[in-house]
Write a sequence for this structure.
């Protein structure tokens, strides 16, 4: 099966199953092969980190983020 065929199959899944597929695939991707972040992406990480360090932004547990995503996908 080609990647195009796999993509077509994945597109037929419901949103929650597509998210599970994405997470499962991402977990199999070796960290040493991750793409290098761009300068803009690094700047955004630094900006957000500074906001967190100064108390202007709070962290959110992964379980809450995951539930927010699932809620958005099911609507």
């Amino acid at each position: 099966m080609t990647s195009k065929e796999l993509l077509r199959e994945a597109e037929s899944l419901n949103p929650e199953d597509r998210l599970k597929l994405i997470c499962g695939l991402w977990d199999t991707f070796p960290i040493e092969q991750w793409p290098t972040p761009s300068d803009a992406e690094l700047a955004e990480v630094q900006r957000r980190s500074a906001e967190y360090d100064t108390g202007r932004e709070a962290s959110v547990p992964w379980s809450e983020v995951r539930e927010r995503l699932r809620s958005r996908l099911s609507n």
Remarks:
- The helical segments are 3-11, 15-27, 39-53, 62-74.
- The longest helix spans residues 39-53.
- The CA atoms of residues 41 and 47 lie 10 Å apart.
- The chain has a mean pLDDT of 92.
